[in-house]
Amino acid sequence: MVTQTQKKLITATNAKISKMTKLGEREVTTTSTGYVLEWSNGLKRWQITYQKKAGKHELDANELIVEAKESDIAAIVSHLHELPLYKYSFEAKMRR
Asked: What's the whole-model pTM score?
């Protein structure tokens, strides 16, 4: 069952995901420790990859940092939207 904190995290994370529409690297600044989520086209899902401390980070177009406890992120990852770059891609359309 998803907690209230996790519901808020789902909403906030999906809002970030919806803005991920451009290819290439980007720089993000975090204020606390978080975990990098990486979209996998092959698996069609987000995966927790590694931890990042607060600071500036270079991320690829399929990566996102979520500033939360790993256990909360693990609980919400299946509730996250597809990466827009994948969702509207030729590859995604061929797999449906």
From this structure: 0.89
Asked whether the predicted pLDDT for residue 78 surpasses 70, the reply is yes
Neighbours of 11 (CB within 10 A): 11
Concatenating the DSSP letter of every residue in 7-57 gives HHHHHHHHHHHHT----S-EEEEESS-EEEEEEETTTTEEEEEEEE-SEEE
Task: Extract the tokens encoding 80.
Answer: 């996250």
Long-range contacts from 23-26, C-beta under 8 angstroms, 24+ separation: 23/61, 23/85, 24/61, 25/58, 25/59, 25/60, 25/61, 26/58, 26/59, 26/61
Sequence spans of domains, the chain = 23-95
**Is the pLDDT score of 90 beyond 80?**
no
Which residue from 92, 90, 79 is spatially nearest to 17, judged by alpha carbons?
79
Q: What phi and psi, each to the nearest 5 degrees, are found at residue 89?
A: -85, 160
